[in-house]
Design brief:
Serine Threonine Protein Phosphatase 5, Tetratricopeptide repeat, 21 helices, about 75% helix
Length: about 425
């Protein structure tokens, strides 16, 4: 009897354990909200953080990331801290999307301080840029200029001045960035910003030797808008001389082509566009020079190359569409940037094909190419702006290459229908 009791106890225990509900649930998997079994604690917390982030429960996501940091190996701590910063950015983007700019600014200022306390220069720069972008989206140009200066993005101040139609002032700023010695640049830009608000002209206190050359294209374009063609040509040629790679050189050749075309220097425009690889523009110049047979050959080459390029870019786009699901910690704006560049490239290829078809008097094909390009851009804009509800992105893209290209396509289609 005594030996029977332990066996009876064991049987009762096993029976009760069998009837008790499993922590894995009926299907043998963790119930929703429960971390996967067998993972280290920090990984389990990280998993819960990603789930909360996917549901846009940003405070909860940050809570779990902090819990993960407590037991994470040293090599993962900095990455987890960055994920906390990213949740703040996602939350700010959502607020801007809803038109709540005040909340977005509060979040961005808060997370900028956190990034600064952690010594993360990359994210400090990113959040300061986003603060400036938010002021720009609100149409508050004065605050945007101050924020861009705070972020050290001096060229962006010039872009804001161009938005305001202050070409001369933008030109002065761009020149300061190109010709001022580095040690004087920050002081000068601050002084220039003060003078710009008073509408005064300024001169750069430089030593005569160019230091920073990436804004020469902006200088040339400002001179071009002001009708100062010789000065624009000098700026573009200086940029070309200092180009570090083929792609940059092609950009400056394209700018020279635009300038020469405006000046009706057809031979120079032809050579510049040819070196820029702008085959449609080469064909257009040949047409203006009366060389129709030569232009026709260039247009046919455009159709052949662009057809293959469009196929390749569509494959790239399909690959990019799966990227956010693979990278759980990726930033939404990175996805937007990658997709927008691909869609823009496809649209530009289709536009060039439309131009080629129109020049070859294949008007039906031209109209279809233009329509396909416009459809692509409008579809993408609707996707990223959440059917018009994302006011921040709608505002931002009003000044973008998308809006300008759609307007250009409408004009081309209207001309064809006439």
């Amino acid at each position: 009897m005594i030996s029977f009791l332990p066996r009876l106890t064991v049987c009762i225990f096993l029976f009760v354990a069998f009837l008790a509900p499993s922590p894995l649930g009926a299907q043998g998997v963790p119930p929703q909200g429960m971390p996967p079994q067998g993972l280290p604690r920090w990984m389990a917390m990280q998993s819960l953080a990603y789930k909360a982030k996917a549901k846009k429960e940003y405070a909860k996501a940050r809570h779990y990331f902090k819990k993960a940091i407590e037991s994470a190996p040293p090599g993962m701590v900095s990455r987890l801290k960055q994920q906390i910063l990213v949740t703040y950015l996602d939350e700010a983007n959502e607020a801007r999307g809803a038109g709540n700019y005040k909340k977005a600014l509060e979040i961005l200022h808060k997370v900028e301080k956190i990034a600064r306390s952690q010594g993360d220069k990359h994210y400090v720069s990113l959040f300061r840029r986003e603060i400036a972008n938010t002021w720009l989206a609100m149409g508050n140009y004065d605050q945007a200029k101050k924020a861009y200066f705070w972020a050290g993005l001096y060229a962006e101040i010039g872009n804001v001045l161009l938005h305001e139609g202050k070409i001369n002032e933008a030109l002065g700023l761009y020149k300061s960035l190109v010709f001022c010695p580095k040690e004087k640049k920050k002081v000068y830009v601050k002084g220039a910003a003060d003078l710009f608000r008073q509408g005064e002209s300024v001169k750069c206190p430089h030593d005569g030797s160019p230091v920073f050359l990436s804004d020469l294209d902006s200088i040339g374009l400002c001179h071009m808008q002001l009708g100062q063609h010789k000065m624009a040509e000098s700026a573009f040629k200086a940029g070309l001389k200092n180009a570090r790679d083929k792609l940059t050189a092609q950009v400056y050749y394209g700018l020279l082509g635009r300038l020469y075309e405006k000046m009706q220097r057809w031979d120079d425009a032809f050579q510049a566009y040819r070196r820029a690889g702008a085959k449609v523009k080469v064909a257009e110049i040949l047409m203006k020079m009366g060389k129709k047979d030569a232009a026709k050959l260039w247009y046919e080459e455009v159709l052949k190359e662009n057809k293959e390029d469009v196929k390749r870019l569509i494959k790239v786009k399909k690959m990019l569409s799966s990227y956010p699901r693979q990278g759980r910690g990726s930033l939404p704006m990175q996805e937007i940037s990658s997709r927008s560049n691909t869609d823009y490239s496809i649209a530009m290829k289709l536009k060039d094909m439309g131009d080629a078809f129109a020049a070859l008097e294949s008007y039906t094909n031209a109209l279809k190419a233009y329509q396909d390009a416009k459809k692509l851009l409008i579809s993408y804009l609707r996707e990223i702006t959440d059917n018009g509800r994302n006011k921040y992105l709608v505002k931002k893209f009003e000044f973008s290459r998308f809006a300008r290209l759609i307007k250009e396509l409408d004009s081309k289609m209207a001309n064809l229908k006439r």
